Amino acid sequence: MSKSIKEIVRNGFNYTATYLKNIFTSIGGLKSQPNHYAVLHIHDRPYLLTENDQLTVPFNMKPLHRPGQIIRLTHCSKLGSRDFTIQGNPWIDNKLFTARAVVLEITKGPMFEKILDRRRQRHKKRVTSKHYQTVLRICELKIADELETSGSN
């Protein structure tokens, strides 16, 4: 590669500026569509989401996030609408979209009971637990208008 082309290196992505400009010109059809969806990954679990969706994730986000806090979601593998789709390999670059969620509540699920038994023994043990759940609402899901090259020379 020539030295005249600026390279953008962010979050493990290594794209040239001309390559990203070509992507932005080709997603005009996707941006013109009314509704968008995204396959967002939270703790390596994929969730198909649109704007204003409510999502219950089966783990506790309490140490890092409190109710009312806004989280930016950065791991997206698919972004699309009814007619157009962008597939990441493995992720779509953060410059192409913005996805934010609000933490609504951190609660516990229903009581879960598991019966443990050992082979060739008559004793059975009952183990109960209530797992944490975090409820999120997707407050923003939009495709970027233009290339943001802030922070690169």
From TrEMBL:
Read off the Pfam families from this record: Ribosomal_L21p
The record lists the membrane-crossing segments as none
CC annotations in GO: mitochondrial large ribosomal subunit
Which GO MF term does the entry hold, naming one? structural constituent of ribosome
Give the matching PANTHER family. Answer: 50S RIBOSOMAL PROTEIN L21, LARGE RIBOSOMAL SUBUNIT PROTEIN BL21M
Q: Which family does it belong to?
A: Belongs to the bacterial ribosomal protein bL21 family.
Give the protein name, as stated in the record: Large ribosomal subunit protein bL21m
Source species of the chain: Neolecta irregularis (strain DAH-3)
